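User: I want to check something. If I give you two sequences, will you return the structure for each one separately, not as a complex?

Assistant: Yes, each is folded on its own. Here is the first sequence with its structure:
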Amino acid sequence: MRRSLVRHGPVAVGLLAVTALLSLPASAHDFWLIPHVFRLAPGQELIVDGRTSSTFPTSLSAVTPDRIGEARILTAGTSETLSHIGVDGSVLRLSHRPTDVGQAVIAVRVLPREIPESPESFRNYLRVEGAPEALERYEREGILPTDSIIRRYAKYAKTVVEVGSGGRRAFLQRAEHPFEFTPLADPGSVEPGQLLRIQVEFLGEPLAGARIHAGVATEANATASVLDQEYLSDEAGIVAVPLAHAGIWNVRALHIVPAPAGSGADWDVHWATLVWQIG
């Protein structure tokens, strides 16, 4: 089973945070989907912000609509494309008017971009985004570049909302993203102080040893998440996240692998996030 090379989470304060942020490439930001409300009436407009930054739930820049490869709303029995997509300042903005009562998953895939890199800049990327032992492992395997390379990255995001009261559950619906989080219990039924088990998959298979970060913001416009913690997924690709407080929660991870031969890139970087609210 392939093990992941994933980055360390954002540090909220101190010189370490400043140094890390200054060292990150421009592309090194998570992409989150954050609804304006997580519960709405049937027919009410659902507005979801796509936020891009290194600190949940802020946004430093907006992904432009032309980079959206797929935006869908998934219910327990349907899948519908979201066509109302625009930009408002530093956020991508999606809107839709769901009519079916029940839970829904919003899923967005951001198209890949390619970045030329020197061998040393790629090694530095691995140091900043991954872990020293992972860099050592790739060096030991003899697959790190000695010439300039193409690094390709793509991002995948999901969030869960409730339309009306009751109805069918949709939290287990997969968006079939290459790198994806799926909650194994209904986020809408979890209370503060409980655990939520979440599975991470890569190319449809559970990903063991993935370094996953989880945190909570007390409100959508908070400047930083609190209780940000790091976890490793087990052999089934599962982490159990303690939900100590009510708020807007997120899990996120980064997975770096050699690109398939003939794909036009040398290394692929996959970013994934999941956002939900409890309390």
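And separately, the second sequence with its own structure:
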Amino acid sequence: MKSLTLYLFIIYFLSCTVPKATTHKTQSKHSVEKTEQEIKIFFDSYAEDLRENRRESIANLYDTAGYYRMGNGNKSFISFEESKKRYLTNWTAPKSFEWKDISVEIVSPTAAVVTALFDWQASTGEKSTFSYTGLLVKKLDKWRIRVEDESLNPAGYSIKPISGNRFVPGPYKYLLTAQPGASIAAHLHSTAMHIKVVRGRKYIIMGNLDSSKVQRYDAGSSFVIPAQSWHLEWWEEETVEDIEIMAPFKTQRATPSTPRKSE
């Protein structure tokens, strides 16, 4: 719902600010490719500024008319002066930063929507994965951020489909990337899940959760979670898993009314 609200907000904003004659359809292929390249250079520079603690450069990435900051159920309008003051005085640079899976949608020669993920490691060493949605506008030949949504993944893990569709009958394969400290409470799936640990280490308890022992799977190991088997899992270091399951499938979460025991 939050993503839909942001999307509708962006469409409304564009309808008010983008000239009708300069839509994506009227642009030549060369023009679109040129604009996409400019956006990619913008985000490469953005990442480098974050890593190098270039406070003033980061502040100047935003629209001089101010921008809308959104994320995790919040929305506020920040003036350019407020934004610059924050970056120059109260902002703390990350220990590491990396964009992932950037997608660019050119709306017009002077407007683009960007969606992505990014990994942020705080100065204290804690790692987090965020989703990102931004609206960029071009003024005086310079791209600037007009809307920015940065939302933390509270689960501590992200999923990237590889093949198939979880809602269409057939094999569905995806990569799961878990951050240190992430966990999933007791649950079960309606079909069997085949897992290979590509990198890192996974801990899991399966079956009767009152008596089962912890199992550890290191990188390179494979195992199966049987259908209808209760299990809980966690990760103590960044871990990547290759997972395959027959779709469609259902997941049931444990609650006080469920027995938490495999039949």
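Because they were folded independently, the notes below concern the second chain alone. Residues 20-24 have pLDDT under 50 and may be disordered. The two ends are 36 Å apart (CA to CA).
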